[in-house]
Amino acid sequence: MSLRRIIKKLEVPHDGGTVPSRWINNDIRPIEKERRTWNFWAFHNLWVLTNTNISTYMVGSSMIALGLTWWQAIIAIIVGAIISASFIIFNSLPGAYYHLGFPVLNRYVWGMYGSSFVIYNRILLSLVWYSVQAWIGGRCVYVCLEAIWPNLEDRIPNHIHATGLTTATFMTYIIFSVISLPLIYIRPHKLKKLLWAGVVSIFVFFFVVLVWALATMEGFGSIITSRPAIQDRSTGWSICYAIISAIGGISAGILNQADYARFARRPRSAWYGQLAAAAPYSIISSVIGILVTAATQRRYGEPIWSLPDLMIAMMHDGGSRSRAAGFFAGVAMIISQWGINIPGNALSGGFDLAATFPTFINIRRGAYITALLSSVVNPWQLLATASTFLQVLSSYSVFLGPMIGLMISSYYVVNRQKIKVDDLYVGNRSSIYWYSYGVNWRAPVAWAMGVWPSMPGFVSAVNSGVTVSIGWTRLYYVSFLVGTTISALTFSALHYFFPAPCIKDYLLQAPPRRVVQAQFTAKWDGEEVTHYFDRPKEDQVAVEQFPRDV
């Protein structure tokens, strides 16, 4: 078989649909009506799983391990959740109205070629988060096996001492990764049953764990009345650091929320679902982590911030009943990890890889590539201690915050919510989003302006050998808000003082945004399109009265 035929065989099949090219395939084109199946409950359940899971639990519990009191940690969680939910809603609406995913939307922000920078960063983030969640999932498998065969470490000899791991823990990580592979095959618009299963299992489990912790530990003990381990003027900044860590844990979801919002039946389905679930369940999950860690701290002699480790300690401290409870706890946690890791990380990586190599990769292939490459991240290092875990979360904010600021300011301020969708799939000068050689130079400039203030503190945080002044450290503590604000203002200012001629001309002649959105939806759904400028002047007013959710 010739090389040309082999390459042809590797191309994404289109089965009469969109012929794959450098800029489009069936998975990154606008979502047609038949695949827009996500209602309020689908978005509600997505965010229940995104925020009610083991990693969110660990965000709250790790704050206790670092020395904050229970009420200081709860304040940080509530503020972080409210800020996160606001950004989630704002950054999802372009996808909900135009049915476009994160990689394509960034073409009007960064340019046709410039968007690759953001996509590559998001692919890397998908690899990191998939590996982290898979490692946590492996710990859940470990809980199940430990319940069946106690003292698992003694039963399985350790042959990998040099890695800092044990053979048993690495084996359970591999088991979880393998049993996750069949679920990746499910198409995104058919994930609702998996979401429901994850929601039910994690809710029941969290409730039982909280009741167990409070009942068997006689409440919170001295934790409620004890003074914080941090008792100087830096307490406020420690709370700020905890807030940004809470935001950092969901910043990847904020960045690519359009990947899911584009499946909404109506924009309000996404809006209401996110509003009802994004903040409340994040607060509930993290507060449960805080309360359980506080309640069990005295019994085990230290705050056990990792939920699987707490279940293992419970089984070692009890008898056969504890092991039975531990087994079912492990099963519930495994289902929960599937619910967050498959749509949140595997498919996100699939979306981005499909946009980067649309001729050869679709969402399904990209998701499997994400899963297979994720192990190179060494997730066991990222979850070694509570301080390392929070440091990883907060470091994301340094780079993702400015990207989110660019997306929001570009859609609402620069483009006034009017997107010429057809031009997002044209890779030459005829596209109004071509800018300069396919790159909108204003975007990298604004992004760099948002990143640099946090860099000294970031370098000091990841390298203990580097010391910076307290001012830089505290600026790093609020990196997400600083980076988002500076990048958004800089990007808007650059477009105001140095406007892109094609964008400016299009916005001057384009009809109101609701008309633009309605015409676009009708065209890509294969319905009859009546153009705004083709109507008599007296009819144009009527055209503007489109329903809000089209």
TrEMBL record:
Main localization, broad class: membrane
CDD domains, alphabetized: SLC-NCS1sbd_NRT1-like
GO MF, any single term: nucleobase transmembrane transporter activity
Location in or out of the cell: Membrane
UniProt entry tagged with the keyword Transmembrane: yes
Transmembrane annotation, as ranges: 68-90, 161-185, 194-215, 235-255, 275-295, 324-347, 396-414, 475-498
Record-level GO cellular component terms: plasma membrane
Lineage top rank: taxon: Eukaryota
A Pfam short name: Transp_cyt_pur
Keyword flag Glycosyltransferase: no
Keywords noted in UniProt: Membrane, Transmembrane, Transmembrane helix
Protein topology in the membrane: Multi-pass membrane protein
Sequence similarity: Belongs to the purine-cytosine permease (2.A.39) family.
NCBIfam families referenced in this protein's UniProt entry, alphabetically: ncs1
Record-given protein name: Allantoin permease
